[in-house]
Amino acid sequence: MANFRKAAINVFRVINSNKATVAASTNPLQTLRPLFSYSIFTPFSSHSQTQSLQIDLSNEESKRRLFNRLVYRSKQRGFLELDLVLGKWVEDNIHSLDENRMRDLIYVLDLENPDLWKWISGQEQPPESVSANPVFAAVKERVMKNLDSHSAPEARATPGQPWVRGWDDIKKGRDGPVSGNQ
């Protein structure tokens, strides 16, 4: 019985792979994608979808899809601080962005997480191409305004300097912890 089941599954795979081959030969876009529905996208690369992302604001459905995609990308970066900062900013401003600002937002979303966080939080100076981006400037302005209104300047690192690790930086003596706050 198990052999019959395996044979049936293999026949099903062969039939579906033949359909995929026929579809790929008739549709040139399908030839870029391998069989068995593996895609070009990998979860470790933020640059895989940028070439194919078309900004179409002509009808409500395409607008809704684009807005949802950008909000999702801004909230699900895998870097908690950026998820909160970018996600909130995009949620608040996505409906007021025109096509050029959408492209600027996509450019910001394609930046690497650690670099973007250091630039937004003022730990490092961003490159000229990034600091000239109006979306980046608006996000950074919002972060700096929140820092100024919610934290004392003495509690922050000086601009351009890395942040200190925390309360265990002082305890480097003989009886101090080896690492962390243990």
From TrEMBL:
GO cellular component terms listed in the entry, alphabetical order: mitochondrion
Disordered: annotated segments: 147-182
Gene3D superfamilies in the cross-refs: Flavinator of succinate dehydrogenase
Keyword terms: Chaperone
Pfam families, alphabetized: Sdh5
Keyword Repeat tagged: no
InterPro entries documented for this protein: SDH, SDH_sf
Gene Ontology biological process terms in this record: mitochondrial electron transport, succinate to ubiquinone; mitochondrial respiratory chain complex II assembly; tricarboxylic acid cycle
Record field: compositional bias (Basic and acidic residues): 166-175
Top-level lineage group: Eukaryota
Name used for this protein in its record: Succinate dehydrogenase assembly factor 2, mitochondrial
Natural source organism: Cajanus cajan (Pigeon pea)
Source lineage: Eukaryota, Viridiplantae, Streptophyta, Embryophyta, Tracheophyta
